[in-house]
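*** Fold description ***
***
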Amino acid sequence: MIDENSGSLSDAKSLVVGAPRTGFALLLNILGELGRAPYQVDSEVQRAVNILMPVLGEYLHTKIIALLKKTYDGNDIIYNQTFRQLLGGPRWLDEVNSEQACVRKYIGVKDVGDFTLLIYLPKKTLHYHDRIHSHYAPARWINAPEFTDCIPFASMRNPLGALYSAAFSINAITGEYIDRFVGDEGSLRDKFALFRLSDAKMVGGLASHASSYLKAFCAVQEHFNLFRWEDIIQKPAQTIVGIAQCRGISISTNKAQALWDGIAYKNLTGKHQYNFRKSRQIGTVDDWKYFLTNEHLEQMKGHGIDHYMAEFAYEPITLFNERDYTPFQRKVSRALSKGEVLTNGLEDQNLQVFNWNKSNIAKTDHEFDRYPRKRFSCIERAHFSDGEVLAHFSDEIEEVMSFINHFIDDVYAVGNEPDLSTRRTRFVDIQNTHRDMFAGLNDKVLMDLYSQRFTLLFDALF
């Protein structure tokens, strides 16, 4: 953490919004190096919530695995450690219920399929993080009173570069599957890129999603300190100095360069090891020009992306001279002209199903199973052959999330007690009242964590 000449803003939380593949994680990590002291929290009751969140995340994880193991071999369940924390996964403020936040988790079963699970929590729980962050709905963050004290930041990248990056991406459950059943990434990124970029429907869905986000962001952009991925990559020290200034922190160019040297071209997403492309040690802003084709550019133009290119000081979309296409571009262009989706090297259907963009994409002609939203959970999009199993899972996970929400509500309610002794008694009651729900899973690791976390709570607060 940088500790030079801190200004009055430096103790505030950062709020970061940005579409996927736009330098979002990079900006978030720079702010982490600049940001608040570790474990600084906003209130005693929030400290209590923060202390107990790990055991709630472990409880949800254990229940998810237990429910699926009723039908499937545990070794076939694909659930990356990224999602093990309660708030692990993309999150946003819910549109339907203004008091809730939503977290998306990705779950798969080998040779059966995968699905996205949305869980709903009190939005106050997002204060667990000192850098609140989201890929979605920037206006909701500006309008939510709980986050008005945050310093708002936004990441941006040339939308064509973001599309190119998405084409070569490997998501968390696919990475988990590769580790356990394939063994090595090999040339899979290239195969995934050919697969995605030859699927006109998928590209159209990605373009539509990007357009929707950019439109929403443009409406509120004046509220955010905007930093472009290209500027971070090309002039890191200068840009980091600017980011620090927005936090009320003054640092030297040398300190900023040292910060950059510590995080540049490294995996910054924790357990999701495949989010970083080890084969590319240096970011290049024009890489997309060697992989996207005129068909992709026309789709992006058709979704109004040209307007946003100008808005954020990127060059306008200009069609390529097709005689200059790379071999990759020629292969993709031929497939698009024939309506052929390139799946060579992806004969293992799990690789196609797991790494299909199910979240950062607008509605397409691709069919997904969807289940009704419940109060605390929703199976959002599924490509899962056992529909009856998933329907039962949907019902059971709602009960799990109902319990978790009530547990959290009970903890927050203690904050209304003015007397220290009464607060301690209330926490003891919570520990005893909910113990059976955790003990019912017969998981020693979970119960040890339960005891440890309450011990830590009493030590920290009383």
About this structure: The mean pLDDT is 91.
